[in-house]
């Protein structure tokens, strides 16, 4: 589904991505882990060309999206749904209208169809009857659920999750992880998660990739990762303060 080839990105003197290579399998959930500031979110933003690389390619269904014109790129982006760290809900809209937004603006459906899809989407994420509320009136967990409903309402082929449990307590974080897995089973999307929740996120991941020093240092199944002999992987997974990864 997605292939990243020799991806490089600088911001001024900071060389964040130094040649990332990664294959993301169709229909699976791949989680990208790594230390703070390692470039996980930067990498995620390249997958749907929110950022463009200084060098390298991102292929979605064998099309290099880094070389597309705006019209063609917008068509590819319709394959994607995104759940942002803070859910990125529009404060001036109700939860219902936030979820309805892409159906009205992109799909341009009739209002009767919008109502049906929004109500179904809210029910799926446990927010049935909460559509009249505004983002300021709901909890952080409910905002995440609403953001997920909005992303999924257009049935994307690919879902990107940027730190989906940031700011949530462990119980709410676990519920969001379980919800992602449930929605994956229902929609069969290709999922990419950027997360720091180690090892909790392993429970919902088919594959893990670790980003360190600007490159992917290891890729494998959850079982392979937990059994890894790579000292950087072992230090990060087990939360050790001593090892090859500097703790700042």
Described by strand count, sense and barrel closure, the largest sheet is: 6 strands, mixed
What strand order characterises the main sheet?
6-7-8-3-9-10
Main structural class = alpha/beta
Quaternary structure annotation: single chain
What percent of residues adopt helix (DSSP H or I)? 25-40%
The coarse silhouette is globular
Rg calculated over all Cα atoms: 18 Å
Order of helices and strands: EEEHEEHEHHHEHEEEHH
Low-confidence stretches: none
* Number of distinct helices: 8
Tell me the total number of β-strands: 10
Fraction in beta strands: 15-25%
End-to-end distance:
36 Å
What would the average pLDDT be, to the nearest integer? 90
Describe the structure.
Helices cover 35% and strands 24% of the residues. It is an alpha/beta fold and 248 residues long. The strands form 2 sheets. A 6-stranded mixed sheet has the order 6-7-8-3-9-10. A 4-stranded antiparallel sheet has the order 2-1-4-5, with helices on one face. A hairpin with a 2-residue loop joins strand 9 and strand 10. The model has no long low-confidence stretch (mean pLDDT 90).
């Amino acid at each position: 589904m997605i292939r990243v080839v020799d991806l490089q990105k600088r911001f001024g003197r900071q060389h964040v991505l130094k040649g990332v290579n990664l294959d993301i399998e169709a229909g699976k959930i791949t989680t990208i882990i790594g230390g703070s500031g390692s470039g996980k979110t930067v990498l995620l933003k390249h997958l749907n060309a929110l950022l463009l690389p200084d060098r390298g390619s991102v292929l979605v269904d064998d099309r290099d999206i880094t070389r597309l014109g705006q019209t063609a790129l917008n068509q590819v982006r319709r394959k994607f749904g995104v759940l942002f760290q803070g859910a990125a809900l529009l404060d001036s809209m109700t939860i219902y209208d936030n979820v309805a937004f892409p159906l009205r603006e992109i799909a341009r459906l009739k209002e009767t169809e919008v109502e049906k899809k929004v109500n179904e989407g809210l029910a799926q994420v446990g927010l049935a009857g909460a559509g009249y509320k505004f983002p300021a009136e709901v909890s952080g967990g409910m905002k995440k659920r609403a953001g997920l409903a909005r992303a999924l309402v257009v049935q994307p082929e690919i879902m990107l999750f940027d730190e989906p449990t940031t700011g949530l307590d462990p119980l709410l974080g676990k519920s969001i992880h379980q919800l992602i897995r449930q929605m994956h089973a229902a929609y069969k999307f290709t999922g990419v998660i950027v997360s720091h929740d180690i090892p909790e996120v392993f429970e919902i991941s088919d594959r893990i990739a670790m980003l360190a020093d600007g490159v992917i240092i290891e890729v494998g199944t959850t079982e392979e990762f937990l059994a890894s002999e790579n000292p950087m992987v072992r230090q990060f997974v087990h939360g050790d303060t001593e090892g090859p990864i500097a703790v700042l």
